[in-house]
Amino acid sequence: MENREVAMDQLATVSSCCRDVSSLPFQDLHLGSTKLIPINGSSPVYNFSEGKSYFLAFRLPVNSGDLRITVDGLIDKSLFNPTVLMLDAKFNVTRKLGSDVFKYEPARMLQGDRIEAVFTVDRSYVGNPNNESYMVIYTDHGTLDKTTTIFSPSKLMTRSLGVVDYGEKDPVIPHSPWGVVSISVEDLSGVKTDSNYYKPIYQDVIDANTPVVNSSPNKLVVPLATTGVAKSVAPMLTETEAFYQSQIEKAVKAGDIDKAMQLVNEAERAGSTKAKSIFIDAVKRSQKG
């Protein structure tokens, strides 16, 4: 791993890449993959509210079920201690995940020591602009002079094998602007989760309670609060219909009928005419199996 002092010196002299978070160099983050990504002098730098940091920026999958994301800062001679910034489709911050979520995980099996966070991204309403759509990983500049204490090899052996701990001193790992980050993304269709969770406001609820200005001067039309949810009148796009079909069938196959019915209701509100028949057919197939 690169020398921490070199990383600190280079960070002090490098300029911010971008004017604001909307102009960061986002890359697509794909489902079902685990990525090991080095953060070094070739990585971009941005001036976050906590100060300058090298960073990674990702565009999250859109047409999926809820997402379970795992982010690890891998520990070697130093540590890039991650902070995660989540943004909606309009680049508004939805939440910041730092030391309250990231926890030390000692080495186990093939995994080394790491700082890890596991959290969930809501995808119950496709196309909602309030959905979390972007993820930025950086380190808090104010913690670069801090350290993380990890378990010594003798303590790890004591925990895993029950042998005597000879009192070897636990290593103290300095934080660095550079390091290695591991990222994995899982589609949680039909799977329940209790990890850190953010639930966005549904746009149709917002629209249903927002006054509409009539084209005629001096006239204000307040939408009727009949159901609290605006009814879609536009036909659903073919690809969106196909997505709902896939998610309904996955939920039924997993035995989560409540989730499937919720998807049916959401699809119908969004303009689907096929969701209910898809649900019924899926249930019939599951009963035959």
Tell me the number of helical segments per DSSP (H or I, 4 or more residues long).
6
Mean pLDDT: 83
Proportion of strand residues: 25-35%
Structural class: alpha+beta
Rg, Cα atoms, Å = 24 Å
Model regions low in confidence, pLDDT < 50 over at least 5 residues: 214-233
Distance between the termini: 53 Å
Main sheet specs = 6 strands, mixed
Please bin the fraction of helical residues. Answer: 10-25%
- Taken in chain order, the helices and strands follow as HEEEEEEEEEEEEHEEEHEEHHH
> How many strands appear in the DSSP assignment?
17
Q: Note the overall shape.
A: flat
Characterise the protein shown here.
The chain has helices at about 5-15, 155-160, 205-210, 240-255, 255-270, 275-289, and strands at about 25-30, 35-40, 45-50, 50-55, 55-60, 65-75, 80-90, 95, 105, 115-120, 130-140, 145-150, 170-175, 180-185, 195-200, 210-215, 220. It has about 290 residues and is α+β, with helices and mostly antiparallel strands. The strands form five sheets. Strands 2, 6, 9, 10, 14 and 15 form a six-stranded mixed sheet that branches. It has a five-stranded mixed sheet with strand order 1-5-11-7-8, with no helix packed on it. The chain has a two-stranded antiparallel sheet with strand order 3-4. The chain is flat. About 30% of the residues are buried. Residues about 215-235 have low confidence and may be disordered.
